[in-house]
Amino acid sequence: MPEPKPEPVLDRLVHEPGRLAILTVLSSVTNADFVFLQRATGLTKGNLSSHLAKLEEAGLVAIEKRFVRKKPNTNIALTKVGRARITEHWAQLDSIRRLSEPSP
Amino acid sequence: MPEPKPEPVLDRLVHEPGRLAILTVLSSVTNADFVFLQRATGLTKGNLSSHLAKLEEAGLVAIEKRFVRKKPNTNIALTKVGRARITEHWAQLDSIRRLSEPSP
DNA sequence: CGATCAGGTTTGTGACGCAGACTAGTTGAC
DNA sequence: GTCAACTAGTCTGCGTCACAAACCTGATCG
């Protein structure tokens, strides 16, 4: 036996703190722009940009770029898949947590 | 301003899925041996070993090596610090989560 | 004009998680 | 006694990735 393959319970894409913050904020506001998200999450621009790129690539968020008052503006919203995944992720964290708290 | 330094809310050392599992399991059993932890967490030996090394280095767990029935046996327990940190971590996750669930 | 600012994107790199190779010692078969 | 197989871990190489700093594009200001 070449070592047991563990079940992949926690999705790293979602679990990463920066992305967890992004997704969680998004799940409460329906849509947000880049600057708002940066303030809300405390991430740097570069960081936020690359996290968003990954989330978009994975289909968890939808990104729309426009110009607002002659300035570039990036609008981000959770997709259905994204909403499902973040919800599921919190549920999985709960089940891990219950390992330590048998029953009140 | 050279980009705002974000507050380090989530401790990566603890947040990492493998270690989160280890710490959470430990917080329910007072102490455990290597093999038990491997089964409980689903990690491979190599993985578990290096995670434990990091946790020990950070003072979150205490590791004691013995021989039990002529075989090497590694016994692991949460330290006070470790117990505090895992509790605090769950609390921080809660506060992040509340961002998306204003109040029922 | 040149400088500055807003709003992002691209790049360099060190750290790290992963799994598989390796080690040390034990037990069982012959 | 010695050979093979097993237990209990540690060590190593590699690919990935998060981070921040440098960079880019266009608008606005002096």
Topology, please?
Two copies of one chain form a homodimer.
Chain A: H1 12-15, H2 17-29, E1 32-33, H3 34-41, H4 45-57, E2 61-68, E3 71-78, H5 80-97
Antiparallel strand pairs in A: 1-3, 2-3
Chain B binds a DNA duplex (30 and 30 nucleotides) through residues 2-3, 12, 16, 18, 34-35, 43-51, 53-54, 65, 70-74.
Give a short account of the largest sheet of chain A. 3 strands, antiparallel
Oligomer: homodimer
Shape of chain A: elongated
- Share of β-strand residues of chain A: 15-25%
Largest interface between protein chains, with number of residues from each side: A-B, 29 and 29 residues
Distance N to C terminus of chain A: 40 Å
Structure write-up:
Two copies of one chain form a homodimer. The longest helix of chain A is centred in the last third of the chain and has 18 residues, at 80-97. The first copy, chain A, is α+β, with helices and mostly antiparallel strands. The first copy, chain A, has a three-stranded antiparallel beta sheet. In chain A, strand 2 and strand 3 (71-78) form a beta hairpin. The first copy, chain A, starts with 11 loop residues before the first helix and ends in a 7-residue tail after the last helix. Chain A has helices spanning 12-15, 17-29, 34-41, 45-57, 80-97, and strands at residues 32-33, 61-68, 71-78. Chain A binds chain B through residues 3-4, 6-7, 9-10, 12, 15, 17, 20-21, 24-25, 27-28, 41-45, 86, 90, 93, 96-97, 99-102, and chain B through 3-4, 6-7, 9-10, 12, 15, 17, 20-21, 24-25, 27-28, 41-45, 86, 90, 93, 96-97, 99-102. Chain B binds a DNA duplex (30 and 30 nucleotides) through residues 2-3, 12, 16, 18, 34-35, 43-51, 53-54, 65, 70-74.
